């Protein structure tokens, strides 16, 4: 089945089980990523678990994640009973802006993550030392 058809089918399933459009998009994006890029066990087999949890009320399908900026590059998130993927999607741009070297005062540039050491797909520093 083509990816676009899978996406639409999965979005419809999320919405039918009680997920908001934003939650459905976040969950379907991560599911397709897992299915297409090597973590098939975290793709559609796991997606069914999410649908069951949504339907049964164990996941808040209309969650409104909240964020607390504890430090400039440390954000505490509360998923409001929803899925972590939605919170990640909502805060990603803000977080990456906060941790880019240009976001630090010039006196702290030596401690900032240099270009090329930031994995923008996972939000993880690749610097080891």
UniProtKB/TrEMBL annotation:
InterPro entries: Mal/L-sulf/L-lact_DH-like_ah, Mal/L-sulf/L-lact_DH-like_NADP, Mal/L-sulfo/L-lacto_DH-like_sf
Residue ranges of the region described as Disordered: 102-129
Ranges of biased composition (kind: Polar residues): 118-129
SUPFAM superfamilies named in the record: L-sulfolactate dehydrogenase-like
Region forming the signal peptide: none
Ranges in coiled-coil conformation: none
Identification of the protein by name: LDH2 family malate/lactate/ureidoglycolate dehydrogenase
């Amino acid at each position: 089945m083509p990816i676009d058809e899978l996406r639409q089918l999965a979005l419809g399933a999320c919405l039918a089980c009680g997920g908001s459009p934003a939650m459905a998009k976040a969950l379907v994006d991560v599911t397709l990523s897992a299915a297409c890029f090597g973590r098939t066990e975290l793709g559609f087999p796991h997606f069914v678990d999410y649908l069951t949890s949504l339907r049964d009320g164990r996941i808040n399908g209309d969650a409104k994640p909240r964020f607390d900026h504890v430090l400039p590059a440390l954000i505490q998130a509360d998923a409001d009973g929803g899925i972590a993927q939605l919170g990640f999607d909502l805060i990603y741009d803000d977080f990456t802006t906060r941790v880019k070297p240009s976001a630090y005062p010039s006196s702290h540039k030596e401690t900032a993550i240099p270009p090329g050491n930031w994995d923008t797909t996972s939000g993880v520093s690749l610097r080891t030392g």
